Amino acid sequence: MNAEGQGCLKAKKQEYALVEFTPGVFMIDFYTAATPNGRKVALMLTELGLEYKEHLIDLTANQQKEPGFLAMNPNGKIPVIVDHEGATKTAISESAAILYYLAEKHGQFIGKTLQEKTVTMQWVMFQMSAIGPIFGNYYYGKNSLQPYNPGYIERFEKEANRLLGVMEIHLQKNDYLAGSNYSIADMCTYPWLIGFVKSNPEWFAGKPAVHRWVARIGERPAVKKICS
What we know:
By secondary structure, the protein is α+β, with helices and mostly antiparallel strands.
């Protein structure tokens, strides 16, 4: 399992092939893997009720570095969607950018006013700049880094606990990260945390608001479908 692989889905392998879009069948091609970043987009597509064609990318075989994939995302990382609606197809990479694009296009899960959208994106960026890198580096240190480096692990564990404290304070006053409504901020963050709720329960001790948030998100039908 790679550094992103901890979470609510087991990794699946499938031969990678870029397929031609067939009009009238799927409007979205979705290139992904069983990682938290891939699950963010799967959650959003499911919440929106959109039909899509899923292409599972074998990260261990570096399929994301093949020329066909790099033509869609020069950075060579999942997830990527290709939206075929309209006169020209639109390829979008970076998980937060994909969520933002889909939220704006469909007018859901981001808020209505500029202020609401800004608050939502503030917490999306919190996940992208803090939760993802810190929790990911901790996982890498515990499971992949050689030689084993306790100082490296301690650094990221301490910061992970601080970030959970930030969430605890915020969620004591809010049902969801962006306030009273479920949003792409929650979809960004939940897939990164749920694996650690199970593997590192001591991090979540004394954080009842975070526990309530995890339980609330986990009851959503789309989350049950993607993270079962």
